[in-house]
Amino acid sequence: MDDTRCLLSDQDEPERVRGFLKENLSGASAPPADDISTFPENDAGVGKDLPPPYADNSQRPSKPQAPHWEIPSISEELAREALAEYVASRCCYSRKPAKEMVFSDLHSLNTFRYRLDTFTESRSTEWASEPYHGQVLDGFNGVAAGPWDLPVPIPAMFQDCQKDVRMPHSSSVKGCNQCLSLGKSPCNRCVTSGQIQCTVCSGSGRDHHRDARCYNCSGSGRVRCTACSGAGSMQCSSCQGRGQILCFLKLTVKWRNHSSMHVVDKRSGFPVDLLQEVAGEMLFTDMNQRVYPVESFPDGAINAASKQAVQEHHSQFSTTCRILQQRQTIELIPVTRVHFTWRDKTHIYFVYGAEHNVYAKDYPAKCCCSIS
Predict the structure, then answer these.
(1) What is the DSSP code string of 98-147?
(2) Angstrom distance (rounded) from CA 25 to CA 70
(3) pTM
(4) How far is residue 315's CA from residue 311's CA, in Å, rounded to a whole number?
């Protein structure tokens, strides 16, 4: 069988994609500065998801070079090997169909996968405290900076990360409210008495089995509290017995990568969910602080998915986060539908991804003990 003829059954589509990459795609790039709404400045304070100040340093990138690529092909030999490996991994599948089948057609159903990643930074502040052990105080040495004015190193792009930073010029010493600056708090178990009821005699002071005085509490019915060692109070957990705490503004910086993915469904009976993680052939990559939606890709579903994803990410993240970087990619995912006959019956299976995974929902011999 002529594999090239079968694989390029949708030969018009590869030509249109190739033309898109060479001529039509001027390069999705960052929109001009006046296309982004401005955001108000904010003073230092306490708040969650504080809106970032307006900043857009993006530049229009140069036109990317058209990548060199070829439509992945698959031969009958490779299709048979892929099915044989798939069957070998299933304990109740007979290997006979994979060895004896006769190919009737290999049909290319190559599809496309679009992905948009938006890497954001969000900041929030809240009052925090820790026991005071003589740390340097800076609350009176200057004015605390705004949450977005404090420089914090950015970690690796498109990887989730979180960092807590103490805001400069925000620390001061306060008396501990938990213990009223005493350094101690009442013991809840003995209610400051230092003693609790004896568990051996239940507080009666008598050992009823021997009709004698209780040996554990010496007849008093009460024993020393083990929680506070009889002191009636415990060290304050907030100030660790110091009576004072250091209060400061804590800045929490969160970096998050938000992803949207769309795989074009060819309506071939193949579950597109299986194409979410498989490897494909990279056709196009665009990365900038803000990217334009792809508009002239030959497959209209990709254009629509790109437009929707870019709009959704902008509306979801631009008001509460700082968008540091966006990246959009288009990949070609190889999918081949294999038609074969075995024992005078026609069957199909799919070989997909660069890994040559197999999807064979209706494999004809799933129980080897029933095959002669």
Answers:
(1) HHH-EEEEEEE--EEEEEEEEEEEEEEEEEEEEE-SSPPP-TTSSPPPPT
(2) 18
(3) 0.71
(4) 6
Looking at residue 320, its amino acid is T
Amino acid identity of residue 158, one-letter, is F
pLDDT in the model for residue 23? 55
Radius of gyration of the chain from its Cα atoms, rounded to whole angstroms: 35
Q: How far apart are CA 342 and CA 96, in angstroms?
A: 9
Which positions ≥6 away from 170 have C-beta within 8 Å? 44, 138, 139, 144, 248, 249
Q: State pLDDT tens for residues 25-41.
A: 544 444 443 443 332 33
Q: Report whether pLDDT(330) > 90.
A: yes
Q: Do the Cβ atoms of 223 and 178 come closer than 8 Å?
A: no
Lowest-confidence pick of 27-41, 224-238, 278-292, 301-315: 27-41
Nearest to 114 by CA among 319, 242, 299, 247: 299
Q: What is the 3-state secondary structure (H, E, C) of 39-52?
A: CCCCCCCCEEEECC
According to the model, what pLDDT value does residue 16 have?
Answer: 63
pLDDT per residue over 156-214, tens digit each?
Answer: 999 999 999 999 999 999 999 989 999 999 998 898 889 999 988 888 888 877 778 89
Distance CA 96, CA 98 (A): 5
Integer Cα distance of 198 and 223 in angstroms: 6
- Residue 358's pLDDT band (cuts 50, 70, 90): very high
Polymer length in residues for the chain: 372
233 three-state secondary structure: strand
* Residue 136 one-letter amino acid: V
- Give the SS3 label for residue 268: coil
